C-alpha cells in the first residue's frame, strides 16, 4: 500500500534526512587509507546517537538475508555494489567506496548513499561516480507531479546506457516514510509513462547503482548480503530521499 505523506510528515522526514546527511559527511571525512570499515560504522553510530535517532539498518532482515544486518551503514568497496557489511577491512589507496546510511527520527525515516574514492583516484572511478550522480540527478528531475515511476526509471537507465554501465536488474529505489522500505518499488530500469503515478506527498528513495563492466547480473557473497559485480568491475551507488511536491521534487537528505 502506498502512503501519501502530509506536509507535516515530510517536515519530520526532512529532519531525519539531515541526520543521514550529517552521518554521511562524517563518514566521508573519516575515510582515509588505513581506516577500517568498522571504524566508519562507529562514526555513523555516534552521529545517530547524538541526534536521538535510531538506525533502520541495524537488525534489518529482509527475506533474502540469512541473518540480521549487523551495522548502521552499508560499506561497499570496489566491486561491491551494495549491502557491504563494514568489517575489519582497511581502506587502501585508490579504493572506490559506497556508503549507504539511514535514520529514523520521531517515527519517520531517511535514507541516502554516497560514493567516493580514497587516496589517489582512478580516472575511470571518477567517471563512474559522475555518471551515477548524473543518473540520480536525472531521476530526481523526472520525479514531478503528473509523471509516473517509469519516468524516473527511464531517466536513470538512459544515463547508464549512455555511460555503457550495467545496473543490478532487480534492485532499485523504494517508497519511504514510517518504514525505510515501503511501496512503491522504484526500478532503475523502466519505460516512461508506466507505473505508479507521482502525486504531491509521495516520498521516494531514488538510488542508481552503476557497474562499470556493463553487465546487469551480479553475485552475492557468502555473507548473504554483499552484492558484487560478476566480472570484478567497479561499482558506484548514490541515493537521496525525495518528496514529490507541487513545486517540484524536494530532496530531504541534503545537509
How large a portion of the residues is in β-strands, by DSSP E?
15-25%
* Contiguous uncertain segments of 5+ residues: none
Question: SSE order in H/E notation?
Answer: HHEEEEHHEEEEEEEEE
Give the % helix.
25-40%
Per the CATH scheme, the topology name is: Creatine Amidinohydrolase
CATH 2nd-level architecture? Alpha-Beta Complex
CATH homologous superfamily (4th level) name: Creatinase/methionine aminopeptidase superfamily
Specify Rg, calculated over alpha carbons: 17 Å
Cα(first) to Cα(last) distance is 30 Å
CATH class wording? Alpha Beta
How are the strands of the largest sheet arranged? 6-5-7-12-13
Strands, total number: 13
The global form is globular
**Number of alpha- plus pi-helical segments:** 4
Q: How many domains in all?
A: 1
- Secondary-structure-based class equals alpha+beta
Major beta sheet summary: 5 strands, antiparallel
Mean pLDDT: 97
Amino acid at each position: 500500500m502506498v502512503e501519501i505523506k502530509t506536509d507535516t510528515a515530510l517536515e519530520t522526514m526532512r529532519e531525519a534526512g539531515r541526520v543521514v546527511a550529517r552521518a554521511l559527511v562524517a563518514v566521508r571525512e573519516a575515510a582515509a587509507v588505513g581506516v577500517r570499515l568498522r571504524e566508519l560504522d562507529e562514526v555513523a553510530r555516534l552521529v545517530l546517537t547524538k541526534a536521538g535517532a535510531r538506525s533502520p539498518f541495524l537488525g534489518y532482515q529482509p527475506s533474502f538475508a540469512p541473518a540480521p544486518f549487523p551495522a548502521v551503514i552499508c560499506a561497499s568497496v570496489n566491486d561491491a555494489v551494495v549491502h557491504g557489511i563494514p568489517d575489519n577491512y582497511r581502506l587502501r589507496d585508490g579504493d572506490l567506496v559506497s556508503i549507504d546510511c539511514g535514520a529514523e527520527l520521531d517515527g519517520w525515516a531517511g535514507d541516502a548513499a554516497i560514493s567516493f574514492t580514497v587516496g589517489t583516484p582512478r580516472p575511470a572511478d571518477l567517471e563512474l561516480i559522475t555518471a551515477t550522480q548524473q543518473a540520480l540527478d536525472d531521476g530526481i528531475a523526472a520525479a514531478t507531479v503528473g509523471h509516473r515511476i517509469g519516468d524516473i526509471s527511464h531517466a536513470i537507465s538512459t544515463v547508464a546506457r549512455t555511460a555503457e554501465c550495467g545496473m543490478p536488474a532487480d534492485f532499485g529505489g523504494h517508497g519511504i516514510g514510517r518504514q525505510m522500505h515501503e511501496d512503491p518499488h522504484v526500478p532503475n530500469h523502466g519505460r516512461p509513462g508506466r507505473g505508479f503515478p507521482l502525486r504531491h506527498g509521495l516520498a521516494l528513495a531514488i538510488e542508481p547503482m552503476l557497474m562499470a563492466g556493463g553487465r546487469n547480473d551480479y553475485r552475492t557473497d557468502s555473507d548473504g548480503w554483499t552484492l558484487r559485480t560478476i566480472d570484478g568491475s567497479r561499482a558506484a551507488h548514490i541515493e537521496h530521499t525525495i518528496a514529490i511536491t507541487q513545486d517540484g521534487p524536494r530532496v530531504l537528505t541534503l545537509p
